[in-house]
Design brief:
The complex is a heteropentamer. Chain B is mostly helical. Helix content of chain B is about 70%, strand content about 5%. Chain E starts with a helix and ends in an 11-residue tail after the last helix. Chain E has one domain: NADH:ubiquinone oxidoreductase Nqo5 subunit (Beta Polymerase, domain 2, 2-Layer Sandwich), CATH 3.30.460. Chain E is elongated. Chain E is built from four helices and seven strands. Classes of the chains: A alpha+beta, B mainly alpha, C mainly alpha, D mainly alpha, E alpha/beta. At the B-D interface, helix 16, helix 17, strand 7, helix 20 and strand 8 of B face helix 1, strand 1, helix 3, helix 4 and helix 5 of D. Strand 8 of chain B pairs parallel with strand 1 (about 65) of chain D.
C-alpha cells in the first residue's frame, strides 16, 4: 500500500470557511497546502438554459438570482445588453437612479465581504456590525423597490418606477450613519495589529500575472492597476460623476504594507470603495435631474429584439460582471452567457496561489478574493 | 557464586553464539541465563534493609568477591547504589530477552551472545569496588554494545558510536589515571582525596566520560544514530538500562568517591556546589533541546532517542543539585525512565514486527488493531509526560521541588517547558502511530511481546500509589553519603515547600471518573465507521480514497520556528565528529567487515591485550 | 421522574437550544446573516450556527437544491443526531419556485428528506424565518416535529427517491428493489 | 484510625464544590455569550443558556462514537478538570490543595487536555488532528511566561503550595500590589488568554480554518462532556489566576468572622473570577486570531521576555 | 495596435465592440497576436448552439484595457462531434471555460487533459445546454414522477 503523505481537507460546502455553497478540495502536508481543486456545481440551476426558454422581459426576475449578495449588477448588465441590441438610450433620471442603486448594492456587498474577511480571521464583531449596518441599506432598498434582497428594479429601458418621495432624506440619514461607523471599522479591522500580521503578504496575487489570470475588480486594483469598468466604459451616470478609483499603492489613510494583491490590500481597497460609493450616491442624489424613468416601449410580451451580438459589462463589488447576449430577432434570446468575476478568482487564481498557503490562511484568502459560487456555475 | 555467574554468562555467550541457526532455542537459553542477575539481586536484598521471604532467595550469592590480578585486585561488592541500578537492569534485561524470542525470526545467536556479554559487563560495573575492575567491565560492556551496533549495519551509527565510545573510554581512563597518580590506589574505599585542582580535573574528566554514555548534550551525538539504526530489543535495553550506567558512574564518583563536602570546597553558587550547578545547567539544556529535537523527528526511533536524551537530562539536573530531595528525584526518574522508555521501544518493536514501518507518517490507526500494545504504550506515555496518574509525575515533582528549594530560578522554567514539550512529541506518537486513519489490517502483537511490555508497566503503577516505598529504597543510598531520606509515608512525600499525597490524587481521580462515567452512560451510543466522518458534507462514496491522516510533518509550524536554531549546531557538530571519526574509522573500516563472528574475535583479542597490558604493567 | 416528564424536559431543552448547521445550500443563505446578527439576532432563542453536522440539531435547507447539493444534504442530514429538524426555506423547496423547469434542481424537498416546517417566499423575510423558528418550537413542544422519526420509519422510500434523483433516472427503482431483496 | 464521619463530610463537600464549579462554569458560558452579544450590538441568549445547552446535549437521543479511545475523551476531560478544581483553593477554602501543590495543578490540567486530544485523534478527522496540534503548541507557547511568573512567585513566597501562597496573601497583602507581581499579573493574564482559548489565541478551534478543530466529530453527550470541560476550565483557570495574584478572593479571615467570612469570601472570589474573565472577553471580542507560529513567537518573544525580567528581579532580590 | 489595424476582416458592430469571424485553425494565432497587442484580458469563451445551421459557434472574447475595446473572435464548428483545439496555454482560465463547454455542449477540446466533470455530477443524458435538450419535458418526466413518500 502506498502511503499518501498529504491529507485531504474539504473547505466546503458544509464548512464555516466556505464562501457559499462551493468546495475546495485541498491536499495538505503538515501546515501547508500542496494542491487545491475547486469543486463547483452545487448551485447549478441552468440559468442560461432557462433564459432561452423565457421571453426577454421574463428574464429580468431570473437574472438577479445569479448573484445573491449584489443582485442589481445582473439586472443592470442584462438590461444594458438588451438596450444595446435595441439601440435604446434610457432617460437621464433613470441613469442616476441606476447609479444610486448600484452603489448602494456595492456598499452592502462590501460590508458583507469586509465583515466576512474579518470574521474568517476571527473578528466576529466586525461581521456582526457589518451585516447589521448593511440592514439599514436593505431598508432603503425595501422602500425604493419593495424587496430586501431581490429588487427587480432595473429594467431594460430604465427603472421600474421613480424613487419614493422621502428616499433622499432616508438615504442621506443612512449614509451619514454609515460614514460615522467607518472609523470604528478602521479601528476594529484595518488598524488592528493582529489583523495586519495575519493579512499582510498572505494570499498574494502577483501583479505581473493578475491581468493574464483574468483578475478583475477590487482584487485587480489591489494588485496595482487603476482599472475600473465605471471609468473605462462608463455606464449609467458614472461619466458625469466625480469619483476616484482606489488602487494600490494609493491606499489613502491606510498603510501600504506589501507588494501585490494580498488580503490586507484587498480589504483596504474595499473599505476605500465604500467611502467612494457614499460620495457617489451623495453626488447622484444632488445632481439627479427630474423626468421620466422608463422609456415608452412596446408591450413587453411583444418584444422582438433585433438579431445581433451584445456584450455589456458593469463593475460589481467582486469584479467585472458581463453579459454576452445573442439574439436572432425573436421573442426569446438565443444565448445569454454570464461572465461572473468569480469564475477566474475562484477557480484558476485560487488553484494557482493555493500551493504554499498556510492551511490557516486558505479560507481568508478565498473569502478576500470574494468568491461567489453562483456566478461561476449559474 | 559470582565466579559461577561469570562462568555461566561466558558459557552462555558461546552456546547461544553457536546456536545462530536456532534463534528460538538460543533465545530461551539466553532468557534463563538472563534471570541470574535478578536472583542475585534478590539474595542481596538485605543491603537495602529489605527482608524478602526465603523462597525468593533460593540462590545465595556472596556479597563480596575478590580476584587477584597482577597489579591489582579485582573487587566486586554489592552496595546500595549498585543494588538499585542492578534492580533496574536485571529486571529489564530478562524482559528484553523474552521480547526478542518472538521478535527475531533468524540469525539471532550473535545478538543474544552480545547481549549477555553486555549484561555481564553491566553486572561487573555495578559491583565494582575499584577502578581496575570498573574499567575492565566498562570495556566489556562498551565493546559488546559495538557488536550490537554493528549488527544494525548503519555506517553513521557505527562511526559515531566508535568515536564517542573511544572518547568516553579515553576520558574515563585519563581520569582514573589521574586519580591513581594522586592516591596510589585503585580501590575506591582507600582513596583519600583533597580539594586539589588535580582531583577536580580528574572528576571532570570522569564525569564527562560518563556523560557520553548518559547522552548528555553535547555528548549525545551518537545516541540518535545508534538508537534509530539498531535492533529494537537492544535499543530498549540500551536506552532503558545501559544509559543509566553513565549516571551510575557520575553518582558513584561525585557522591561516593568525591563526596558532597569536597565538591562544595571547589566553590559554591547560591548554596549549590559549582560543579553540580554546571551539571544541572547542562542537564536542563539537554532536557530542553532533547525535547525540542524529539518534536521534530519523523522516525519513531529517533523521536524516542531524542526523548531519551531529554528525559535523561532530568537525572543530570537531580545529580547536579545534589540535595537528598534532588538525588531521590534523580533516582526516581532513572527508575521511571528505565521502564517507560523500555516499554515504548518494545512497543515500537512490536509495531515494526507487525507493519514493517518506523516512520510515524507512514503508520496510523493501530490503536484498535493492537489495543494491548496501545494501552501499554499509553501508560508509558503518561509516565513520560508525567501525568499524575503514573509514577512519572512523582519523579519530576521531586526534581521541581528540589530546584525550587535551591531557588533555581532559571533552570526550573526550562525543566517545566521541557515537560510541556514532552506532551507534543508523545501526542505525535499517539496520533501518528495509534490513532487516526486505520491504514493497516494487522493482528495484535504476539503474547511473548505483550507480556514483557505489561510486566514493565507494573512498576510505574506500583510506585504511583506508593512513592514512599521508593523513598525507602533510597534511604540506604543516601545514608552512604551522610544524608537522610526525605520525610515520607507510603503514599505521601513531604518537602520543606509542599506535600504530595498520591492517595488523595488517586481517590479524587477515581471519584471524578465515576462522575464522568455516570454522565457518559446516560445515553446509548452507536459505533460508526471511520469513513462516516465530517468531510464538510462530501459523501465519501464518491471518492476512491480520502487520505485523512495528518501525521506527516505534524508539527511543521513548530519546526519552522525552531529548526534554524538547531540545524547549524547539529550540523557543525556532526562535521567535527565525522572528521574525527573518519581518521579513526577509515582504518577501522577494513577491520569491521560486518560479520558478527569477526567481531567476537576482535573483542576476545582486545580482552587478551587488555589483561596482558595490566599484567605487564 | 417518570419517563414522560423526562422526555418533556428533553423537549423543552431541545427547543431552547437548537443549533443550526452552517450549510448554505442556496441563495436563501443570504437572509441568514441578518437573522444571525444584530438586527434580528436568533441567538435570543439559543440558536446559533455550528460547523459540523454532529453538533447540530436543525437543518435550514436554504433554497433550491441542485442534485449535487442534495447528495451533500442527505449526507449531512444522516450525520446529524436525533432529534433533528429540517426547515424548508423558500418556495424552491416546496415546488421548485423560480426553477420549476430547471433540469438540475429538485422540486419537492419532502420527497427526499422529511421537512418539519416550510417557509414560503422568495426569499422569505427575516421575520418569516423567525416566525418559522417559533412555529418549530411550538411543534417540538407539542411533540409534532417528528420528521426524524418519519425518516427512520420510511427510510426505504426516502432512500429510493434519493437514489432516483442522484442517478437522474426513474428506472433506478427496480435496481433498488432487487438490492433490498438481496 | 480514619475518622469516617469527617471523611464522609469531606467527600460530600467535594461533591458539592465540584457541582458548584460546574454550575458556575455553565453560568459563565451564558454570561460570556451575553457580554459578547452586547459588544456586537445584539441582545444575546438568556444568561442561563449554558445550562440548557448542556442538558440538551445530554438528552440527545442518539450518539455516535468512533470506538473506545474516542470515549476516553469524554471521560478524561470531565474527570480531569473536576480533579484540577478539587486541588485549587476556592475563596480561601482548600479542599485537597493541601495534598498537592502548584506543580500538581499544572500537570492535572494536562489530564483533560491529553484525554481530549486522545479522543479527537481517535475520531480520525484531519481537522481534529490539526486542531490538537495547534492546541498543544498554544499550550507550549503560553506555559513559558506563565511558569516564569509562577516560579518567581514560588521563590518569593518560598513555597510551592498554592494554599500557602493564598494564606500568605491574607489581610489584603495581595501579590498584585507588589510592583513586580503587578507586571507578573499582566504577563500571566496574557497567558490566561491562551489558556482560556480566547482570541487572539483561539487558534485550536478556529471554525473558518478547521471547522472547530478537535470538536469536529463530537456531538451529543460527548460534546456535552467537552462543553462541561470547557466551562469548568474557565472557572479553574480564572481561579488559578485569582489565587495567585488576588489572594484567592480572601478579604475576611475565617477565625475572626466565622461563617460570614466564608460567604463574603465566596462572593468576592466569584466577582473576581468574573472580572478576570470579563477582561478576557473584552480582548476576545475585538481581536482576530494569530496563526499558530505567530502565537508561539508572541509568547516566547514578548511575554516571556517580561517574564525573564521578573525572574531576574527576583533573582537579584531574593538571597537563598 | 488596435484590432482593426491588425485584422482587416474585423468588423466594428458598435463602439468598442469588434467582431472577427474566422476559421478554427486561425484562432490560436489571432488570440496570441491580440494578447501581444495589449488585449491582455481574456473575458470569456462562449458557445452558441445554432441548431438550424447545425453549428456551434465558439466566441473567444478579449478586452484591451488600453484601447477600451472588446473583441469577439467567432468560429463555427459542426454540431455533430467536431473537435476544437484547446487554447489553454494562452490563458489559464480558458481551461475552465473549455471544461464547462465540454460538459454543457459536448464539444471536445483536443489538448485539454482536464475535461472531467465540472458542474454536473453523474449526468447520464445529453449535454443539457444543447438546444435539442428539452428541460421542461425532462422535468415533467423525471422530477414530477418521483413518487411522494407514502405514510401509512
Amino acid at each position: 500500500m502506498t502511503i499518501q503523505k498529504e491529507f485531504e481537507l474539504f473547505i466546503g460546502p458544509n464548512h464555516p470557511g466556505a464562501t457559499g455553497n462551493m468546495s475546495y478540495h485541498i491536499w495538505v502536508e503538515g501546515d501547508k497546502v500542496k494542491k487545491a481543486e475547486t469543486r463547483v456545481g452545487y448551485l447549478h440551476r441552468g440559468f442560461e438554459k432557462l433564459m432561452e426558454k423565457r421571453i426577454w422581459m421574463q428574464n429580468v426576475p431570473l437574472v438577479c438570482r445569479i448573484c445573491v449578495p449584489e443582485p442589481d449588477v445582473n439586472e443592470a448588465s442584462y438590461s444594458m445588453a438588451v438596450e444595446d441590441l435595441m439601440g435604446w438610450e434610457i432617460p437621464e433620471r433613470a441613469k442616476y437612479i441606476r447609479t444610486i442603486i448600484l452603489e448602494m448594492a456595492r456598499i452592502s456587498a462590501h460590508l458583507l465581504t469586509v465583515g466576512g474577511i474579518a470574521a474568517s480571521l476571527g473578528i466576529y464583531t466586525a461581521a456582526q456590525w457589518g451585516i447589521g449596518d448593511r440592514d439599514y441599506l436593505l431598508d432603503v432598498f425595501e422602500q425604493i423597490t419593495g424587496g430586501r434582497v431581490y429588487h427587480i428594479y432595473i429594467w431594460p429601458g430604465g427603472v421600474r418606477w421613480d424613487l419614493p418621495k422621502n428616499t433622499k432624506e432616508l438615504l442621506t440619514k443612512v449614509l451619514d450613519y454609515l460614514e460615522s461607523r467607518l472609523p470604528l471599522y478602521d479601528d476594529l479591522i484595518m488598524n488592528n495589529k493582529v489583523f495586519v500580521r495575519r493579512a499582510a503578504d498572505v494570499g498574494v496575487v502577483p501583479k505581473d500575472k493578475a491581468v493574464e489570470w483574468g483578475v478583475t475588480g477590487p482584487n485587480l486594483r489591489a494588485a496595482g492597476y487603476e482599472y475600473d469598468v465605471r471609468k473605462l466604459e462608463p455606464y449609467a451616470a458614472y461619466d458625469k460623476i466625480d469619483f476616484e478609483i482606489p488602487h494600490y499603492p494609493k491606499l489613502g489613510e491606510y498603510e501600504v504594507l506589501s507588494e501585490g494583491s494580498d488580503i490586507y490590500t484587498r480589504t483596504a481597497i474595499r473599505m476605500l470603495e465604500i467611502q467612494q460609493s457614499i460620495k457617489i450616491i451623495r453626488q447622484a442624489l444632488k445632481d439627479m435631474p427630474e423626468g421620466d424613468v422608463l422609456l415608452k416601449h412596446p408591450q413587453w410580451f411583444a418584444w422582438k429584439v433585433p438579431a445581433g451580438y451584445a456584450y455589456s459589462h458593469v463593475e460589481s463589488s467582486k469584479g467585472e460582471f458581463g453579459y454576452f447576449v445573442v439574439s436572432d430577432g425573436e421573442k426569446k434570446p438565443v444565448r445569454v452567457h454570464v461572465r461572473g468575476p468569480s469564475y477566474t478568482h475562484g477557480i484558476n487564481v485560487m488553484e494557482t496561489i493555493a500551493p504554499g498557503l498556510n492551511v490557516a490562511d486558505f479560507a481568508p484568502t478565498a473569502i478576500s478574493l470574494d468568491v461567489c459560487p453562483p456566478d461561476i456555475e449559474r | 557464586m559470582i565466579t559461577l555467574t561469570i562462568a555461566i554468562f561466558l558459557m552462555g555467550v558461546i552456546v547461544v553464539g553457536l546456536l545462530n541457526k536456532y534463534p528460538k532455542t538460543a533465545g530461551i537459553i539466553a532468557f534463563f541465563v538472563s534471570l541470574i542477575p535478578f536472583f542475585a539481586l534478590l539474595s542481596w536484598s538485605s543491603v537495602m534493609n529489605i527482608t524478602l521471604p526465603s523462597y525468593l532467595q533460593f540462590l545465595n550469592f556472596e556479597t563480596s568477591w575478590q580476584y587477584n590480578l597482577g597489579p591489582g585486585t579485582l573487587i566486586l561488592q554489592i552496595t546500595p547504589l549498585g543494588w538499585f541500578f542492578l534492580l533496574l537492569l536485571s529486571s529489564l534485561f530478562p524482559m528484553v530477552i523474552l521480547f526478542s524470542i518472538s521478535y527475531f525470526r533468524s540469525n539471532a545467536g550473535g545478538f543474544y551472545a552480545a547481549m549477555l556479554l553486555t549484561m555481564l559487563g553491566s553486572f561487573g560495573i555495578l559491583l565494582a569496588q575499584d577502578m581496575l575492575t570498573f574499567y575492565i567491565f566498562w570495556e566489556i560492556m562498551s565493546w559488546s554494545i559495538l557488536a550490537l551496533v554493528i549488527r544494525g549495519g548503519d555506517r553513521k551509527a557505527i562511526v559515531s558510536y566508535l568515536s564517542f565510545g573511544a572518547l568516553s573510554a579515553m576520558l574515563i581512563l585519563f581520569g582514573f589515571m589521574l586519580l591513581y597518580f594522586k592516591t596510589g590506589t585503585f580501590v575506591f574505599a582507600e582513596m583519600h582525596l583533597d580539594a586539589s585542582n588535580l582531583v577536580l580535573a580528574a572528576i571532570t574528566l570522569i564525569v564527562s566520560g560518563f556523560a557520553v554514555k548518559g547522552a548528555l548534550m553535547p555528548m549525545h551525538v551518537w545516541a540518535p544514530h545508534v538508537y534509530s539504526k539498531s535492533e529494537e530489543p537492544f535499543v530498549a535495553f540500551l536506552s532503558g538500562g545501559l544509559s543509566k550506567l553513565g549516571y551510575f558512574g557520575i553518582m558513584l564518583f561525585m557522591y561516593g568517591v568525591v563526596g558532597f563536602s569536597l565538591l562544595s570546597s571547589w566553590g559554591t553558587f547560591r548554596g549549590v556546589p559549582l560543579f553540580g550547578y554546571s551539571l544541572a545547567v547542562v542537564g536542563a539544556f539537554t532536557a530542553f533541546a532533547g525535547t525540542v529535537l524529539a518534536v521534530m523527528q519523523d522516525d519513531l526511533r529517533k523521536l524516542l532517542a531524542y526523548s531519551s536524551i531529554g528525559q535523561l537530562g532530568y537525572i543530570a539536573i537531580g545529580l547536579g543539585i545534589g540535595t537528598p530531595l534532588a538525588l531521590t528525584g534523580a533516582l526516581f526518574q532513572a527508575l521511571n525512565h528505565t521502564f517507560f522508555k523500555a516499554v515504548l521501544f518494545l512497543a515500537a518493536g512490536a509495531v515494526y514486527y507487525r507493519t514493517g514501518k518506523y516512520k510515524i507518517s507512514e503508520l496510523g490507526g493501530l490503536g484498535y488493531k493492537m489495543p494491548f500494545t496501545f494501552l501499554a504504550s499509553l501508560f508509558a506515555i503518561f509516565a513520560l509526560a508525567a501525568i499524575p496518574i503514573t509514577s512519572g509525575f512523582a519523579a519530576k515533582w521531586l526534581l521541581y521541588e528540589a530546584a525550587i528549594e535551591k531557588k533555581f530560578l532559571f533552570v526550573t522554567p526550562i525543566m517545566l517547558i521541557a515537560g510541556v514539550g514532552a506532551f507534543l512529541y508523545v501526542y505525535k506518537i499517539l496520533y501518528g502511530v495509534f490513532l487516526g486513519e486505520p491504514r493497516y489490517n494487522v493482528k495484535e502483537a504476539p503474547l511473548s511481546q505483550l507480556v514483557p511490555m505489561w510486566i514493565l508497566v507494573l512498576p510505574l503503577i506500583i510506585f504511583l500509589i506508593f512513592p514512599g516505598w521508593f523513598v525507602d529504597l533510597t534511604a540506604p543510598i543516601l545514608q552512604g553519603y551522610e544524608m537522610t531520606a526525605i520525610p515520607h509515608t507510603p503514599y505521601t512525600i513531604n518537602t520543606s515547600l509542599a506535600k504530595y499525597n498520591t492517595l488523595a490524587v488517586i481517590f479524587a481521580f477515581i471519584g471524578t471518573l465515576i462522575f464522568a462515567f455516570i454522565l457518559y452512560l446516560s445515553k446509548p451510543q452507536e459505533k460508526v465507521d471511520h469513513m462516516d466522518n465530517y468531510l464538510a458534507g462530501e459523501p465519501p462514496e464518491l471518492y476512491d480514497y480520502i487520505s485523512m491522516h495528518a501525521s506527516s510533518k505534524y508539527y511543521e509550524p513548530f519546526e519552522e520556528v525552531f529548526y534554524p536554531y538547531f540545524k547549524r549546531g547539529a550540523e557543525r557538530m556532526w562535521e567535527i565528529i565525522l572528521a574525527a571519526g573518519e581518521v579513526f574509522g577509515s582504518g577501522a573500516r577494513k577491520i569491521y567487515t560486518g560479520i558478527v563472528g569477526d567481531y567476537s574475535i576482535y573483542i576476545l583479542l582486545f580482552f587478551l591485550i587488555m589483561v596482558g597490558w595490566w599484567l605487564l604493567w | 421522574m417518570n419517563h414522560e416528564n423526562w422526555s418533556k424536559l428533553a423537549r423543552i431543552m431541545s427547543k431552547r437550544s437548537l443549533w443550526m448547521i452552517h450549510f448554505c445550500t442556496g441563495c436563501g443563505a443570504m437572509e441568514m446573516p441578518p437573522v444571525m446578527t444584530s438586527r434580528y439576532d436568533m441567538e435570543r432563542f439559543g440558536m446559533h450556527a455550528m460547523a459540523t453536522p454532529r453538533q447540530a440539531d436543525v437543518f435550514l435547507v436554504t433554497g433550491y437544491l441542485a442534485v449535487k447539493t442534495l447528495k451533500r444534504v442527505v449526507q449531512v442530514y444522516e450525520q446529524m443526531r436525533d432529534p433533528k429538524y429540517v426547515i424548508g426555506f423558500g418556495s424552491c423547496t416546496i415546488n421548485g419556485g423560480m426553477y420549476w423547469d430547471s433540469y438540475n434542481t429538485i422540486k419537492d424537498l419532502s420527497k427526499y428528506i422529511p421537512v418539519d416546517v416550510y417557509i414560503a417566499g422568495c426569499m422569505p423575510r427575516p421575520e418569516a424565518i423567525m416566525d418559522s423558528f417559533l412555529k418549530l418550537f411550538d411543534m417540538i413542544d407539542k411533540g409534532e416535529a417528528i420528521g426524524w422519526q418519519k425518516y427512520h420509519k420510511y427510510y426505504d422510500q426516502y432512500k429510493r427517491n434519493q437514489r432516483m434523483a442522484f442517478s437522474y433516472r426513474l428506472d433506478e427503482v427496480k435496481d433498488i428493489k432487487e438490492d433490498d431483496k438481496e | 484510625m480514619v475518622n469516617y464521619i469527617d471523611l464522609t463530610i469531606q467527600i460530600l463537600v467535594a461533591i458539592g464544590v465540584t457541582a458548584l464549579g460546574f454550575a458556575i462554569g455553565m453560568l459563565f458560558n451564558g454570561i460570556a455569550r451575553k457580554i459578547t452579544a452586547r459588544i456586537q450590538n445584539r441582545v444575546g441568549p438568556p444568561i442561563y443558556q449554558g445550562y440548557i445547552d448542556v442538558l440538551k446535549l445530554f438528552t440527545k437521543k442518539t450518539n455516535i462514537s468512533h470506538g473506545w479511545i474516542f470515549d476516553l475523551a469524554a471521560l478524561f476531560s470531565v474527570a480531569g478538570i473536576a480533579l484540577a478544581f478539587l486541588f485549587l483553593p476556592v475563596a480561601g477554602v482548600s479542599l485537597l490543595s493541601g495534598e498537592g501543590d502548584l506543580f500538581l495543578i499544572l500537570y492535572l490540567l494536562a489530564i483533560p487536555a491529553l484525554g481530549f486530544a486522545l479522543g479527537a485523534g481517535a475520531s480520525g478527522n484531519p481537522n481534529a488532528a490539526v486542531g490538537i496540534m495547534r492546541a498543544l503548541m498554544t499550550m507550549l507557547a503560553y506555559e513559558l511566561p506563565l511558569v516564569m511568573v509562577i516560579i518567581a512567585m514560588m521563590v518569593y513566597y518560598d513555597t510551592t503550595s498554592l494554599a500557602v501562597i493564598v494564606q500568605k496573601q491574607a489581610n489584603m497583602h495581595w501579590a498584585i500590589f507588589i510592583p513586580v507581581f503587578f507586571i507578573g499579573a499582566l504577563v500571566a493574564d496574557m497567558a490566561l488568554q491562551g489558556m482560556l482559548m480566547e482570541k487572539p489565541f483561539d487558534i485550536p478551534i478556529a471554525p473558518h480554518e478547521i471547522a472547530t478543530g478537535p470538536m469536529v466529530e463530537f456531538g451529543g453527550k460527548h460534546l456535552g462532556a467537552l462543553m462541561l470541560y470547557k466551562m469548568m476550565g474557565i472557572v479553574v483557570e480564572t481561579t488559578l489566576f485569582v489565587d495567585l495574584f488576588l489572594g484567592g478572593g480572601v478579604i475576611l479571615s475565617v477565625s475572626q468572622f466565622g461563617w460570614l467570612a466564608y460567604v463574603v469570601n465566596f462572593i468576592v472570589w466569584f466577582l473576581l473570577i468574573l472580572f478576570v474573565f470579563f477582561i478576557a472577553l473584552l480582548i476576545n471580542a475585538v481581536f482576530p486570531r494569530f496563526r499558530i507560529e505567530q502565537a508561539l513567537k508572541f509568547y516566547w518573544k514578548y511575554d516571556a521576555l517580561v517574564g525573564l525580567l521578573i525572574l531576574i528581579w527576583i533573582f537579584v532580590g531574593v538571597t537563598p | 495596435m488596435m484590432a482593426k489595424e491588425l485584422f482587416p476582416e474585423a468588423q466594428e458592430i458598435r463602439k468598442g465592440r469588434i467582431r472577427i469571424e474566422t476559421q478554427k485553425d486561425k484562432v490560436g494565432e489571432i488570440i496570441k497576436k491580440l494578447k501581444d497587442n495589449s488585449y491582455e484580458h481574456f473575458v470569456m469563451l462562449s458557445c452558441v448552439d445554432w441548431i438550424k445551421e447545425g453549428k456551434f459557434e465558439l466566441v473567444y472574447q478579449m478586452w484591451s484595457y488600453q484601447y477600451k475595446e472588446h473583441v469577439m473572435i467567432s468560429i463555427k464548428i459542426n454540431r455533430d462531434g467536431e473537435s476544437m483545439l484547446s487554447m489553454r496555454h494562452l490563458f489559464p482560465q480558458i481551461e475552465t471555460y473549455e471544461r464547462e463547454i465540454h460538459e454543457m455542449f459536448g464539444v471536445n477540446f483536443i489538448g485539454n487533459p482536464n475535461l472531467k466533470e465540472f458542474i454536473l455530477e453523474g449526468w447520464p443524458h445529453m449535454p443539457p445546454m444543447r438546444k435539442d435538450f428539452d428541460t421542461e419535458k425532462f422535468v415533467k418526466d423525471f422530477y414530477y414522477k418521483i413518487p411522494e413518500v407514502k405514510e401509512e
